[in-house]
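Budget justification aside, the reviewers requested a transparent look at the raw inputs and outputs of the sequence design task funded under Objective 1. We therefore reproduce one unedited record. The lines immediately below are the structure tokens for a 322-residue chain.
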């Protein structure tokens, strides 16, 4: 009797184990199927992208140019905005030579598409490259710099010109401009105009203007274009007289957007600066001294930003209220 009970107990346990094993296999099978059907491909994000908060969208520069009927593209490697400003100005000037142009942030484009610029007839590629820190590329030019450093990169269909922005007080003066010019030539690209170098310790505006004149002279000679005198002196704005307009709709010289002086919104950068209040301001020198050195403190607590080496501060003068 005892033996029969033991056999029944063992049989019951074996049956339970077998059922559990079957259930486990079924769950495992469906789990694997679920994993296969919900597999997600994650694109890695670099540390620099996390630092800048900008992720490349991989735009096709050739498609962008052909879709918008552009013949010239001006890439800018910019940290403080100067190279970007020069790029915008160069694009506006291009219309006087009958050339349609666009400015481009290199981080937004798939640099591999530069190889296909042969599809744009008589294309012109300009690179305005600032040097950051100790001879390093700016944040938005890192990907482009790595691309042209690669010896396997073939750019024999690229026509280019380079203007570098740097400061001669640094050891690696204008390294990015010089490197870009040399590396593009090594990759088979055709230089349209000689390298220009702007020195922020001198007068970078004059340096740019001198290079710009030489650049357009070379473009005219190569492509047979002529600068048009038409529309050069036509105003870009039309004057209207308004009555009873609200002061909130009047432009007061804001950097970011209309009304940004009174209604500030993060994130803050060179195009949308935080208008900090001057809290401390006194002369460090005695009244008998010929020198005047002011100690100033500004309050940035509301901006939730902190000072880092290399940060800039600008002084904005307030006009009298209307």
């Amino acid at each position: 009797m005892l033996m029969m009970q033991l056999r029944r107990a063992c049989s019951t346990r074996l049956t339970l184990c077998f059922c559990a094993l079957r259930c486990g296999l079924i769950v495992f099978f469906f789990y694997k199927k679920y994993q296969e059907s919900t597999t997600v491909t994650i694109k890695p994000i670099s540390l620099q992208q996390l630092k800048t908060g900008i992720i490349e969208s991989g735009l096709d520069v050739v498609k962008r140019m052909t879709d918008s009927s552009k013949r010239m593209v001006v890439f800018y490697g910019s940290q403080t905005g100067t190279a970007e400003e020069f790029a915008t100005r160069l694009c506006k000037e291009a219309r006087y030579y009958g050339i349609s142009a666009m400015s481009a942030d290199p981080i937004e484009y798939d640099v591999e598409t530069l190889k296909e610029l042969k599809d744009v007839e008589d294309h012109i590629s300009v690179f305005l490259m600032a040097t950051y820190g100790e001879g390093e590329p700016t944040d938005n030019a890192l990907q482009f710099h790595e691309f042209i450093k690669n010896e396997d990169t073939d750019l024999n269909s690229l026509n280019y010109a380079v203007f570098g922005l740097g400061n001669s007080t640094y050891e690696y003066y204008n390294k990015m401009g010089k490197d870009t010019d040399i590396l593009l030539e090594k990759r088979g690209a055709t230089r349209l105009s000689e390298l220009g170098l702007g020195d922020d310790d001198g007068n970078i505006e004059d340096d740019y203007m001198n290079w710009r004149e030489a650049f357009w002279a070379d473009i005219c000679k190569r492509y047979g274009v002529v600068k048009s005198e038409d529309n050069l002196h036509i105003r870009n704005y039309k004057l209207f007289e308004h009555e009873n307009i609200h002061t909130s709709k009047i432009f007061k010289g804001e950097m970011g957007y209309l009304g940004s002086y009174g209604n500030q919104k993060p994130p803050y950068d060179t195009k949308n600066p935080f208008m900090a209040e001057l809290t401390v301001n006194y002369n460090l020198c005695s009244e008998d001294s010929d020198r005047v050195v002011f100690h100033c403190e500004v309050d940035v607590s509301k901006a939730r930003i902190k000072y880092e080496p290399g940060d800039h501060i600008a002084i904005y003068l307030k006009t009298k209220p209307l």
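The longest strand covers residues 124-132. Confidence is low (pLDDT under 50) at residues 1-7, 36-56. Computational costs for records of this kind are itemized in the attached budget.
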